[in-house]
Amino acid sequence: MSDVLKAEKITFTEGVAMIIGTNIGAGILSVSYAARKAGYLPLLFWLVVVGVITTITMLYVAEATLRTRQHEQLSGLAKRYVGKWGSWLMFASVTVNALGALVAYMGGSGRLMNSLFGIDKGLGSILFFIPAALVLGLGLKALGRSEKVITALMVAMLLVLVGATLLFPQTNFEHLLDGSWAYMVPVFNLVVFIYCAQYIVPEMARGLAHKPEQLPKAIITGMTCTFVLIALVPLSVISLNGLDNITEVATIAWGQALGSWAFFTANGFALFAMLTSYWGIGGSFLTNIADRFSLPVDDNKKARFLAVAIVSLPPFVLAYSGMVGFVDALYFAGVFSGVVLSIVPFLIIKGARANGEIQPQWRCPDWMLSPLVYCLIFLLYSASAVYAVAAKLNMLPAGW
Predict the structure, then answer these.
(1) What gap in Å lies between CA 334 and CA 337, rounded to an integer?
(2) Which terminal residue of the chain has fewer beta carbons within 10 Å of its beta carbon, N or C?
(3) Euclidean distance between CA atoms 173 and 177, whole angstroms
């Protein structure tokens, strides 16, 4: 069986940027609002806990890729080491999560363009769609470089906003101690959905095939940087406004307190965040399609064009079709695909250790595969799924 996906060199920095760019979607701007009852400390607690367990599942996949000669995506690794049922389960998980996220980015980009420039929402989404789909069409190397450039711009914008906030006379760090741990469960669920870069580990492995020992380092570095950035935004917003005055989107709070420059900077950041997350999730979806159906996207331009169309057109149509029922269905399916993502990587690494083709340059420490760690991961993701369904069906306490 020939390799459908070819190695395309990316640098260590580009690999790190892929993780940061994929994780830092527009959701980073709504974290503060989600923590308005719990407060900053419960949010920080969950950012650490979920960040660690997500990194562990990513390192499971990393070791499996290092034990495999071919450049396979999650569905391909699942087929090889778990079986056909695992492959289809993983492919369904990738598909549903990608569709849900890409629909959100298509609709969100239109609304943001409208608020920034006053243009029609549909036209705004088309303007977003062009660079988003173009980079997917150009391949992994272009994706890595684009992620590096835009992520660097995002980090710079965020640091300017955070710096201005911390120096602002009305900023009060005592607000960080406010809140109640009784409301920590809803915060946990949001954080689970923020860390979403698991899918791009095989893409990073493909890009770093020339220096495989850098893969786990890039994952840990990228996730650490993600944690710092996600923690800084609510720290700034809560310090600036207090828990009682947090707006649903942080851009409004920043704009009201710091001035119109902050509003435009923060909204520009949000637009870039959607773009980098679109590239990460869309690129992973594209290569999973190629891997699962043996499409030679790296050798055949027609196959590449077809795969890009499959990835990019349905989310655009769904975002403006008014098919609310279908979008709700994506939500529920996405919840359960999160549970799949907590189960299958563990089975993949177990299978890879038993039947892998090559000795890896790196392997997960044994404690990561202990039953205690795995049970914790499974229980947390399962609890997240139960909470998400209960929330959608209005079965939770009113205070949540």
Answers:
(1) 5
(2) N
(3) 8
